[in-house]
Amino acid sequence: MSEELRGVVVCHGPLAGALVQAAEQISGLSGVLVPVSNTGCDRGALEDRVISAVGGRPAVVFVDLASGSCLVAVLKRLRSEEQVKVVTGVNLAMLVDFVFHRSLAPEEAASRSALAGEKSIRIP
Amino acid sequence: MAIVLCRIDDRLIHGQVVIGWGRAMGINLIVLVDDQVAGSAWEQELYRMAVAPEIEVRFVTVAAAGTHMGDWQSNGKRGLVLTGDVETMAALRATHPEVVQRINLGGIHHRPGRKERLPFVYLTDQELRSLQALEEGGAVITAQDLPTTPPVALRSLA
After folding, report:
1. In Å, how far are A3, A19, B19, B36, B42 from B107, measured between CA atoms?
2. A79-119 pLDDT tens trace
């Protein structure tokens, strides 16, 4: 069996930590999502934080906004990595879905997570 | 109108710039002066996505900025000139002191060798001396991340 995917969540301020904590509380799974904040670092340092969090493993990286400093930092050094896929607009639903499907290939897991996130947006 | 804000922010075009300052000041032109981004189409596309379509965005090298600063000063738009570091802003001030009169330190974050001056401003001693030299030459320099927060004078950061 191939290595399970790592999930890395990159957001502004304290958002990534809160999302990861909430996903762990709902799923009961801990240690499979790594939060990264852009607080207190310049572009280069943020890139280093992201690279460290991915740790050279197959991964899906979730980013809050579809533009801006977090996404630029992620794509700068990872966009050519075959084993790393990026999903923007992270929400809790996509993270909870992801942690139960980490045996998928990165591209498949990213697509599935994005779909789960989209489905969770409703005006009930 | 003219260039209404000259900002140093190492995160370049992001929410504070577009929403915080852009809306408050009615900005309709953002000029990002960065040699690296000026040569990277995919980064330009990402930065452009953060900006409303009615705002014009230009990505230029330091050399090109030196050539066109006068045009942006007189083209009728309300412009924001953005650099990622002190050195680049100093270069713009050197060629166009009449445009770069007031400098906003908006976000200069931690890296080795820099000391914390404010939670959003870290400077090496050399960077601080460069800014002090600009101020001695007539520039007005304050640190202010958002228009809703009070500006902090450069002399308070030493």
Report:
1. 39, 25, 15, 19, 23
2. 999 999 999 999 999 999 999 999 999 999 999 999 999 99
Which residues form the domain of A108? 10-117
Helix (H) or strand (E) holding B105: strand B102-107
**Domain B3-157, architecture per CATH:** 3-Layer(aba) Sandwich (3.40)
What distance in Å separates residue B119's CA from the closest CA in chain A?
7
Indicate which CATH number applies to the domain containing A50.
Answer: 3.40.50.510
| A76: chain B residues, CB-CB within 8 Å | 43
DSSP H or E run through B79 = strand B79-83
| Number of domains, chain A | 1
In B, residues 55-84, which contact A (CB 8 Å cutoff)?
84
**Where do we find the tokens 């930065």?**
B47
Q: Is position A105 within any domain? A: yes
Q: Which residues of chain B are within 8 Å of residue A44 when distances are taken between CB atoms?
A: 111
Q: Is B89 exposed, middle or buried (0-12, 13-18, 19+ CB in 10 A)?
A: buried
**Is A23 within the bounds of a domain?**
yes
Q: What is the ipTM of this complex?
A: 0.79
- Contact yes or no for A35/A108 (Cβ under 8 A): no
pTM above 0.95, yes or no: no
Helix, strand or coil for residue B80? strand
In a domain, A5, yes or no: no
3-state secondary structure of B83: strand
Residues of A in CB contact (< 8 Å) with B are: 12, 38, 40-45, 65-69, 71-72, 75-76, 79
